[in-house]
Amino acid sequence: MYREIMAKTLTGKGKINQVIEKELFISNDISKTLGCWIINLKHEIIRENLDIFVKGSYDIQLWYALNNNQKSEVYNETIEFYEKVNMSYRDLKVIDNEIYTKVYVPKYPSCTSMELDENKKIKLKIEALYYVDTFQEALLVVNCSDDYVEDVSIEEEIVMNVNPNYINDVVSTQDGEEHKS
Question: Rounded to two decimals, what is the model's pTM?
Answer without folding.
Answer: 0.72
